[in-house]
Known about the structure:
CATH class: Mainly Alpha
Mean pLDDT: 94
CATH topology: Ferritin
Shape: elongated
Order of helices and strands: HHHHH
Amino acid sequence: MNNKNKELINQMNNLIVDYHILYIKCHYYHWIIRGISFISLHQLFEDAYKQTLEMIDNVAERISMLDGEIHFTLQDIWNQKKIPDAQNFQDYNDIIADMVSTYGQIIALETSVMETVKKYNDEVSLDILIENQRINHKTFWIIKKHI
């Protein structure tokens, strides 16, 4: 495996770690959300965790196409995550603020990985990441509208 692929695979594995944290948060907040916007946020978080699961799969498959190994254990997630874990918030506003912060961090991480992908002219990986970021930007925007 060449250095280009090693760098790409390492960054994509790191992104998968934080996608898992996003998945867990969306799924957890889907279960515990309360308040005036329950229906819309309950559905939004369900859509988001399903979309995030697809993102994880697409990035993992791309790593495999690049002849890389996918590093995905609970220990990997716990030790390598950049995004804080879900909290047991009781207040609707705390959940919204946490998810705004989380999506902002995910989008920044995706942007960082895309810069590396562009450097190596990997159009397939770039296409996957652009689509992921498009979805995440939209979810970020919708959640921010609940503030």
